[in-house]
Amino acid sequence: MNRRIFLSLLLAVTLVATAVLAGCGKGDSEKVKVRIGEVTRSLFYAPEYVAVAKGFFEEEGLDVELTTTPGGDKTMTALLSNVIDVALVGSETSIYVYQQGTDDPIINFAQLTQTDGTFLVAREAADSFDWNSLKGSVFLGQRKGGMPQMAGEFALKKKGIDPQADLELIQNVDFANIPAAFASGTGDYVQLFEPTASIFEKEGKGHVVASFGAESGHLPYTVFMAKESYINKNKKVIQSFTNAIHKAQLWVAENDAEAIADVVLPFFENVERDILISAIDRYKQQGSFATDPIIDEAEWNNLLDVITTAGELEKRTEHSELVDTSFAEKAIEAVK
């Protein structure tokens, strides 16, 4: 073959290969990075981990970076300071920011959980549980003004228990250290998320005696939210994000606890599979996982009732002020 022709063919092949590789690289770079900050690592958020593990975010053109920022205050600080783009945290945090006054409110756009996610864990086992047994006890509570504590107090008051008068209430332990404090001997009762509650049961450190989720009713307990400015600049990203979450919600609804546990196992490397299954089953049985991302007005009003009962609400913040259901509604139409 003529050397000139050979070199021409080689150059053509090289150009084609370069174009193909460049095209592949371009496709990869087109994935939009979204930084998520979750308030804690819990099986309560199983659909979020399913969305990551099953590739639902990738299908929607997103490259998510998931970080755990323990506690609602830390998560909201990360969001306000632009360390993260989207927060997974209780809706009450967006209300607090709004009522302090802001030109860039935090907008709730997709719901992940619809009940409280904590369980009442007693140090001593009992054949039957009576809520009145809490009276006079030492109760290791959650952060004042946080959703776990407020939902817990709401449930206690429904049972005729005044948390401030009937309990020795401890609230000065940092969120991330509450399980360790109880394990070391602090308190007769504690509120714990899963899988910690099930782990404590298995290790004999405590006994689950009741569910705060079952007692406090439906509310937008944990929600994906972002700054209004971010949403306005990234509407396509928020829509894709919500689509991915809804795909995961449907998958979780259609599969049993064992199948879900196998998918989320990499996010809980130090937790035994049987614990994962038990914890997920508890959440499924009480309907904690939202089956769609819509934050409806009835749930929002129940949330306001819970915050008001806790004495943490200056004035009622209407659903229309901090909730945008348009992305959730479109996701339901798009994802079948």
Automatic annotation (TrEMBL):
One of its GO terms (cellular component) is periplasmic space. Residues 1-22 form the signal peptide. Keywords: Signal. It is found in: Periplasm. Its main location: periplasm. Belongs to the bacterial solute-binding protein SsuA/TauA family. This is NitT/TauT family transport system substrate-binding protein. It comes from Paenibacillus prosopidis.
